[in-house]
Amino acid sequence: MDRIVKRYHGFVRLKASSYFLVGGDWDDLVQERLVGLYKAVRDYRTDRESSFRNFAELCITRQIITAVKTSTRNKHAPLNEYVSFAQTPASAGDGEQTLEDVLPGPTVHDPVFQVISSEELHSLVGCLTSALSDLESSVLSLYLDGRSYEEIAGRLDCDTKTVDNALQRVKRKVSAHLDSRAVPA
User: Fold this and answer.
1) This prediction's pTM
2) Pick the residue with more confidence: 57 or 112?
């Protein structure tokens, strides 16, 4: 097997150089190509009228195409396109409080805790509905959709600093609401 991998290594690299794997890097493509080569070795039959090289090319191509199709399925979108609450682009490690620090999250699966959390969530949604300005609501909605500050500013026809200021006001209002309800942040 090692001799075959060494012999066809250049061919394998050349075969997949024009493909791109969403959410993956070059090493992932190399691995997929080698899986295709392994399947060619495993499934090749000498009684057929095809050379090993042609059969290996077919197996490698099919393996790469399958990997590319799999990587573009929407089922993987939550993993590939998440929005982090742990860091905002503007704060980038300057010690500023993030949405993750402000928003409460369940820590125990106790039914009583879940009821209380549900009530707190309804209260928070009510607060956001009544306390946020139209600009703050729009900025928060776009931010939670995963938009960058620049994209939000472009969509709302405002400056990126305006977007940052709006998100800071949202954080302060959420913190004030949670403090008034005596919920640990």
Assistant:
1) 0.40
2) 57
